[in-house]
């Protein structure tokens, strides 16, 4: 079995650690944050992600914190007119073999953290992030911010969108995932206690409000006690790619002034809305280099318009663990992981970008044009074509 170093103890790094520990590997995680927690934001987990969590033994722990929403709908941003698109309840289990969960990122992180600590109490070293690495034919050494070093058989870079591991491997080279471009879009996010909202806004469904120049996504979290809000607007004066920059309700309301009163009611009940710029990157051409690989946002940062960022990290984690059990040679195992994941993740990154145009289409400028557009673009067959391939994928059985 291998001695594995993981840079980053976020959702992807922790899932990789758990999958590897359960297969008998030795794992050490290094996290720059001294306090192991995630920001307050929502995560959507499709069947392609939830089946993996269930296989890792986390069904009971997750069911205590998730909201299993009953469906999704499309709504017109100006009038509020709605069209159902997905049945996410029993239909997800029947069609894809696993549920669809909506979860607070912090709750999800805590479930993973507890599971890793139960499997290996001393696996995580917090407050000492990675700054670089060296490798030879026989070993890889991780350099830490404290000046300490750690050596092992291989290194997994799960250190997020601004990955130091990816930067050292590939640099900020166009076409290699390093160079980011501003999309001209920024997003607002916030959480609202469900009891603050009027009864008609407390339904346990996900909604995608579409309009000219923007869209809004809402869905329930934490057993239905919270509503997650994301408001996406075309605006070029905010370019900070961080989830932790606070804004104000007044500024958010100005950006969405022409939207339906239900949207504005949600905004008025957010304690602190946060804003972040959406940057796009071309998919990486490689994920592995010798005994080092990247995964999750470090490998394939994506726009959030297919709700697949966290799911891709879970898939990566399981595929890496499977490859390391198939191959004794770490370099061969990581190349096998890379080859198994490149095509799918690139398709998701590009599909997420395509949805920007779909959600912000000029046809949505009038009720009549919007109705015709939604009925054309969100026909059941078109929805299946755009989404079924995401949920049908099974990282536990896909050919490697």
Provide the CATH topology of the largest domain: FAD/NAD(P)-binding domain
The CATH architecture of the largest domain comes to: 3-Layer(bba) Sandwich
Main structural class: alpha/beta
How is the largest sheet built, in terms of strand order?
5-4-13-14-15-12-17-16
Mean pLDDT over the full residue set: 91
Number of strands: 19
Oligomerization? single chain
From the spread of the alpha carbons, the general shape counts as: globular
Helical run tally:
12
CATH superfamily of the largest domain: FAD/NAD(P)-binding domain
- Please identify the top-level CATH class of the largest domain: Alpha Beta
How helix-rich are the residues, as a percent range? Answer: 25-40%
What is the radius of gyration computed over CA atoms, rounded to a whole number of angstroms? 21 Å
Relative strand content: 25-35%
The major pleated sheet works out as: 8 strands, mixed
Residue runs with pLDDT of under 50 for 5 or more positions: none
Q: How would you portray this structure in words?
A:
The model has no long low-confidence stretch (mean pLDDT 91). The protein has helices at residues 11-22, 47-55, 59-63, 90-96, 105-119, 164-170, 249-255, 261-268, 309-326, 330-359, 367-377, 380-392; strands spanning 3-7, 26-31, 42-45, 71-76, 82-87, 101-104, 124-126, 130-135, 140-144, 149-152, 154-157, 181-193, 205-211, 214-221, 226-234, 245-246, 274-280, 288-289, 292-294. Helix 1 (11-22) packs parallel to helix 5, helix 1 packs parallel to helix 9 and helix 9 (309-326) packs antiparallel against helix 10. Helices cover 36% and strands 26% of the residues. It is built from twelve helices and 19 strands. The strands form four sheets. An eight-stranded mixed beta sheet has the order 5-4-13-14-15-12-17-16. It has two domains: 3-178 and 281-392, FAD/NAD(P)-binding domain (3-Layer(bba) Sandwich), CATH 3.50.50; 181-280, D-Amino Acid Oxidase, Chain A, domain 2 (2-Layer Sandwich), CATH 3.30.9.30. By secondary structure, it is α/β, with parallel strands linked by helices. The chain is globular, with a radius of gyration of 21 Å.
């Amino acid at each position: 079995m291998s001695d594995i170093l993981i840079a980053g103890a976020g959702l992807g790094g922790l899932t990789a650690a758990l999958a590897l520990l359960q297969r008998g590997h030795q794992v050490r995680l290094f996290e720059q944050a001294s306090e192991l927690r995630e920001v307050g934001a929502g995560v959507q987990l499709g069947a392609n992600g939830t089946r993996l969590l269930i296989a890792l033994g986390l069904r009971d722990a997750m069911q205590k914190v998730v909201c299993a929403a009953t469906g999704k709908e499309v709504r017109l941003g100006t009038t509020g007119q709605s069209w159902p698109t997905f049945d996410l309840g029993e239909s997800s289990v029947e069609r894809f073999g696993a549920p669809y969960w909506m979860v607070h990122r912090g709750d999800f992180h805590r479930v993973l953290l507890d599971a890793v600590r139960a499997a290996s109490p001393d696996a995580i070293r917090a407050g000492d992030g990675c700054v670089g690495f060296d490798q030879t034919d026989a070993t890889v050494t991780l350099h830490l911010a404290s000046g300490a070093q750690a050596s092992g058989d291989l290194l997994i870079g799960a250190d997020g969108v601004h990955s130091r591991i990816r930067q050292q491997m590939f640099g900020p080279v166009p076409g290699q995932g390093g160079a980011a471009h501003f999309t001209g879009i920024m997003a607002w996010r916030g959480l609202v206690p469900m009891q603050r909202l009027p009864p008609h806004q407390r339904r346990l469904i996900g909604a995608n409000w579409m309009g000219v120049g923007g869209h809004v996504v809402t869905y329930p979290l934490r057993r239905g006690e919270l509503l997650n809000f994301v408001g996406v607007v075309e605006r070029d004066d905010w370019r900070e790619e961080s989830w932790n920059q606070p804004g104000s309700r007044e500024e958010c309301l100005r950006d969405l002034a022409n939207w339906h009163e239900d949207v504005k009611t949600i905004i008025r009940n957010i304690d602190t809305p946060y804003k972040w710029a959406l940057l796009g990157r071309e998919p990486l051409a490689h994920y592995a280099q010798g005994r080092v690989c990247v995964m999750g946002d470090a490998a394939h940062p994506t726009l959030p318009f297919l709700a697949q960022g966290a799911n891709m990290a879970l898939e990566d984690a399981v595929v890496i663990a499977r490859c390391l059990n198939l191959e004794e040679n770490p370099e061969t195992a990581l190349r096998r992981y890379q080859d198994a994941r490149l095509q799918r993740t690139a398709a998701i990154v590009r599909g997420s970008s395509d949805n920007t145009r779909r959600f912000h289409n000029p046809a949505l400028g009038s009720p009549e044009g919007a109705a015709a557009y939604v009925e054309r673009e969100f026909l059941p067959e078109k929805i299946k074509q755009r989404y079924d391939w995401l949920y049908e994928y099974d990282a536990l059985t896909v050919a490697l």
